[in-house]
């Protein structure tokens, strides 16, 4: 009498693979409780996270009403899109604060230190000017179309535009803060990217 052993995706790990699996399992058992440090998070981080989970709730509600109840709530899709807009713009403020926007730093490797410092300062000034101009443009946009109604709900779109305006103001303030930090410490992430790596 022979016994058929499972093969393929349902087979149990054998030998070295089983030992490795056991080692991973035991590593979780051996590790003690970890301290959680929330000091690195700012107000915009929490707002972006809240908007993300509200958006996830709307998407789940849309999925549930469409595929389970066969009668979707149209407003959930629109509000999910508006939450995504908030997550993107508030999240951009978070990226400005932590120097995590896309940057090209290869030129700084070949420049003399003084030229790199001047160019880095010009980049900081250009970033502040960009966010200041963006803030003015969004302010004008809010004043032009702020009373436009949403498609599925009897609310103004001004709520969304105000979130974008607040995000641009935050990006402007954070870019000023980052530029000042770069000036005080004498270098920026463009000049010394390794100094900004977080372990």
Automatic annotation (TrEMBL):
GO terms for cellular component: plasma membrane. Keywords: Cell inner membrane, Cell membrane, Membrane, Transmembrane, Transmembrane helix, Transport. Residues 55-184 form the Tripartite ATP-independent periplasmic transporters DctQ component domain. Its main location: membrane. The chain crosses the membrane at residues 46-67, 79-97, 118-139, 159-176. GO terms for molecular function: transmembrane transporter activity. Pfam families: DctQ. It is a multi-pass membrane protein. It is found in: Cell inner membrane. One of its GO terms (biological process) is C4-dicarboxylate transport. Part of the tripartite ATP-independent periplasmic (TRAP) transport system. Belongs to the TRAP transporter small permease family. The complex comprises the extracytoplasmic solute receptor protein and the two transmembrane proteins. This is TRAP transporter small permease protein. It comes from Pigmentiphaga aceris.
């Amino acid at each position: 009498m022979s016994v058929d052993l499972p093969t393929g995706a349902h087979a149990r790990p054998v030998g070295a693979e089983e030992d490795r699996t056991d080692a991973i399992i035991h590593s979780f058992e051996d590790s003690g409780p970890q301290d959680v440090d929330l000091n690195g998070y700012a107000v915009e981080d929490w707002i972006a996270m809240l908007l993300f989970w509200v958006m996830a709730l709307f998407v789940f509600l849309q999925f549930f009403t469409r595929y389970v109840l066969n009668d979707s709530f149209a407003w959930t899709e629109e509000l999910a899109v508006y939450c995504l807009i908030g997550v993107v713009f508030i999240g951009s403020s978070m990226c400005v604060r932590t120097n995590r926007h896309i940057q090209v730093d290869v030129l700084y490797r070949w420049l003399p230190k003084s030229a790199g410092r001047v160019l880095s300062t010009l980049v900081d000034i250009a970033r502040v000017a960009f966010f200041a101009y963006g803030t003015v443009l969004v302010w004008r946009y809010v004043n032009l179309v702020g009373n436009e109604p949403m498609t599925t709900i009897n609310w103004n779109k001004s709520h969304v535009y105000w979130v974008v305006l607040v995000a641009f103001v935050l990006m402007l303030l954070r870019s000023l803060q980052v530029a000042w930090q770069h000036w005080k410490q004498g270098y920026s992430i463009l000049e010394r990217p390794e100094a900004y790596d977080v372990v």
